[in-house]
Design a protein that fits this description.
It contains eleven helices and eight strands. By secondary structure, the protein is an alpha/beta fold. The longest helix is centred in the middle third of the chain and has 16 residues.
Length: 263
């Protein structure tokens, strides 16, 4: 498709710089804790936040693809917009035909994010590198057409974010946010999968507003930023075993592609 062509064109015309980075983080916020923690451990990482460009536009994608071509990140962490795909908005959509059409349109506008995730996933696996696709567990994005390719060649880490440090900044109560990360990295799967919350009482519901750094913020919005504990764990796993081969390395097609495209 168009995105695959754009990526291969950019890679063909971009010179790699220095040694490969440990991490490239995409669709994160400008102060993302994951990139910060990877750097804290002495590795190189880049983040492509919403402020770095609108990836529905060709010139912004070219910028991202150039960074990937230059820095060859061992890990790409991909966390596309979950809003219109969330279970909450799915419930809203079911309330009226008008709402249904509205959310269908919003999801349709974001399908490029799914397509780009698939293209970047293929690129990473083809070069023996890793790819991680993060969404809330009930996100409909995980089930759209095309995602089956990623499901097939990765493992789904299922966990609750409260077990990894997510709590309300005011009440300090834990916030249980069920998450899914599709990962090609066996070490990450071993560390993340199954960290489910065993206690359901005394949690802060993820609705309404709270305050963070003296400003009011929606809890849904606050919960989109990774807690330090979570980012630290991911950064450590990446640092300790960066060169584990992706899952399903022996699957015929991927194995063949990997052998013909050494890193």
């Amino acid at each position: 498709g168009i995105l695959e062509h754009e990526l291969s064109q950019t890679i063909a015309t971009t010179r790699p710089l220095g040694k490969p980075f440990m991490l490239g983080e995409i669709f994160c916020d400008a102060e993302s804790t994951l990139t910060h923690q990877v750097r804290q451990l002495g590795h190189q990482a880049f983040r492509f936040s919403l402020g770095d460009g609108d990836l529905s536009r060709v010139e912004s994608r070219q910028k991202l693809f150039q960074w990937i071509a230059q820095h060859r990140p061992q890990h790409l962490w991909y966390s596309p917009t979950c809003g219109p795909w969330s279970s909450w908005n799915n419930l809203n959509a079911s309330r009226s035909l008008e709402n249904q059409l509205k959310y269908q349109q919003l999801r349709s506008n974001l399908m490029y994010q799914v397509a780009m995730g698939i293209v970047l996933y293929r690129h990473q696996v083809m070069h023996g590198r890793h790819f991680h696709f993060e969404q809330p567990s009930r996100s409909l994005m995980l089930h759209v057409h095309g995602m089956s390719e990623i499901h097939q060649h990765s493992q789904a880490c299922q966990f609750d974010m409260c077990t990894l440090g997510l709590s309300d900044p005011v009440s300090k109560l834990p916030m249980r946010k069920p998450m899914t990360v599709l990962t090609t990295h066996p070490g990450l799967y071993a560390q993340l999968h199954g960290r489910k919350c065993t206690s359901h009482d005394n949690h802060q519901r993820i609705e309404g507003k709270t305050r963070f750094e003296k400003h009011p913020i929606l809890r849904t919005e606050f919960s989109e930023s990774y807690p330090r504990k979570f980012s630290r764990l991911i950064a450590k796993v990446m640092s300790q075993s960066p060169f584990q081969r992706p899952f399903n390395w022996t699957v015929g097609a991927w194995c063949h592609v990997a052998e013909t495209h050494p890193t």
